[in-house]
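Incident log entry.

Two folding requests arrived from the same account within the same minute. Monitoring flagged them as a possible duplicate submission, but the sequences differ. Recording both here for audit purposes.

Request one:
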Amino acid sequence: MKRKAEMEEGSLFSQTDMPPKGTENTKTAQPLRPAEEAAAHAWKEKIWEFDLTKPSQWMKDTMKEDMLKEGFGKREANKVFKGLFFKEKVCNTRTQALEYLKSIPTSYAVKYKIGITPSPKMVSLEKRLREKEEKLSTYTKEQNEKKFTAPFVSCPHCKSRVNRSFIHPPLCPVCGKDMRSDTAVKNITTLEETVRDLKKRYEDTARKYNSKFTGGETWIIRLVNPLYEEK
């Protein structure tokens, strides 16, 4: 009975080391190391291209050297390379290769064809595409300068008169709608749709045409940074 009483007494007094009621015994988050900090704010993904003659280890060393210059540590660089695989897959165009790489969650590498003389249809589509892209860029710039150069800008939708310094063109900070004229918005939308259509037609034509040929190839690598933190 005496031993039992001593144990109960000991148990009672041992509770004095417990945190007071109503407080939480939580661990303080450890600050990031400089290399972790650099990796977290560097880039989410990066595209590299290398000549087909380069060994895979040489490509890795080149990319790692670049990351170390950016502030990554060797440990952080190795996390980026985790899962990196050089797949013997040949895509017909660069865009097709990028689409494939973006479907894979980790760093990965494939090849795509180069050095193929474009067909007359491809040349024509590319010329039209460049013309429309230039027209879209010029028209958009003109409309933005026309609408957003005055000290105060009126919104045609909510009728607010807003200080230009608070505006991130083309949206109104009050109602969130496009502050440009309906005609300008319609013309820009039409040009954007035309550009998207020409890009798709060119890409479809190039994939079909290039599939008939074998020849030059190059490596394209998409590095995925798992340490990146969205701002």
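Request two (distinct sequence, not a duplicate):
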Amino acid sequence: MGAHTRSHRYLRRIHGHDDCRRVPTVQGQSGDFQPTFDEITIVLISNSFPKDSLKDYPEIVTMGEVALHRSVSKDWKVGYGDYMSVAKRPKGSGSNGWYPHVDLVELESWRIKLDLTKDDPQGFVRSATALMAETGPWEGRAHCWGTQVIEAVRGGSLKFDGTTFTVPGPWLSVRANQHLARMARR
């Protein structure tokens, strides 16, 4: 950076106490230079989709990030952010088998239809069928690519748009697509 060196200032306010968070500043020949911004947008980013076995959760899981944002935004001007309903998993997790499940993203929750037949791709068909049988929640769905996949799988086809939906990985895109469609309409 030429004659300037980069340093950082730390400040974050949590529950009325100062804490540490990186805030970049630039140190020049004449001392600290504080950048000027017309506006700084603060975004609260969180995720509450379960990271561990869905067997241990109810069929309907509340999106904790929505409630958290609602609570924080009462006192602070913050934008909303999340991780598209995709939980970060530790490297190597999921290698001990899986349970098929199909998820419906609702306004403030996920409706998870879990099939307890381990490692069985047909469990996705059974889960999609059970999910679509709940007419109230299904009628309130986001009309998007993700729900089109669920409809196709319920019909018995485990392949859609060139992707095979026989293991959990591709189902992340189905949930994320529904989530993005929902959030875009908020």
